[in-house]
Design goal:
Length: 387
Amino acid sequence: MDVGVARWLVSDAAAPALALACGFADPQSLSAADAMRKRWTPEQSAAALTQAWLRRKARTKFGAAADQMFFTPDGLQQATRPAVAQWRAGEYAAHSQTAVVDFGCGIGADSLAFARAGLQVMAVERDPVTAVFAQANLAAFPSAAVITSDELPPDAAALFLDPARRTAAGRSWRVADLSPSWEFCLAALRGRFGCLKCGPGLGYEYIPSDMGAVWASDSGDLVELALWRGSRAYPAGFRGALVGQQLLATDPGAEPAPVRAETPGFIYEPDPAVIRAGGVARLAAMVSGWQLAENIAYIGSQELTATGFATAFAVLEVLDYDERALAKWVRAAGVGVLEIKARGIDVDPAKLRRRLKPRGDAAATLILSPTSAGARAFAVTRCRAQV
Ligand SMILES: C[S@@+](CC[C@H](N)C(=O)[O-])C[C@H]1O[C@@H](n2cnc3c(N)ncnc32)[C@H](O)[C@@H]1O
């Protein structure tokens, strides 16, 4: 998109175009484009319709606030989820930081959280269209300014970096593909308070020894690894998992949880952030549990303990992991809605579900896992109050 069109789109002049575009059942339809082009140029029409479509998509991330925001497709995909941005901004505020440079601010999801936490924000973005949208998204905060640049302001006290992880071929997980570069980010943070947002799959070997590491999940999705420098809450060497707004400090070097052959009354499925942060043993201790098998992130226990760090399931029945026996069980129980979870077993749950031919009114969940007594299928039910 041309930056001139972007400026028009965020101006009052474009409000009628956006209102019309947002009203179409399908903003990507030909009829919507035809109707728009009667009043606006093809470029303006396309920009308003794309925005309407992006706002609709953005509701899953930003809720109703999305209807007032501006997005690029990449900007939306890369934007930090509000709950995680709020947690991060809270940590800057807790450190009495009054100003932050958000370098590579995208459409400004983190900048918004910093501004809401009362910090002065200098948001730097090299892409002119994205910068226009960030400016519009931050318009309600006089304490936030956006500059179009690819240079780090020399007087940045506290810093936040969220390097782009995309190449021409799409999303990339390679450190070498980061922009700004990995080396630049680490050098920029040297001697400063700040945070570097990374992909949650970043190899452990990349985590600098002088930074604290927190893996964050949101609604069960593992969304980022936040590397902190100069933080009291997440000092050098710290490892932890953020689930919702709850933090579990982990110790990846600790002894693994014990493995027991005992039939559990409950199975806990740890949140993905807990697993990635090496917190399974810690969680097992919290719920008086054990691992169903070595290196398998299912925790068995006889106790139901309230925790936000795992989903708890009550075990109803223990079956051998045998396809014919499972098909018979599914048939006998009249199971039509079948959820299959598996770890440590070489099976595609979606394909297995099809082969088991679920038919009937009942719903069931099967957890497949190796155990020290062999592979088992646990028929379970979610303990909803625990989630
Ligand atoms: C992952 S996005 C940031 C998302 C943002 N934290 C949010 O939640 O909305 C990274 C942004 O950095 C910008 N960027 C990449 N390299 C840059 C550089 N050298 N200088 C300034 N901005 C840069 C990209 O254009 C992209 O918009």
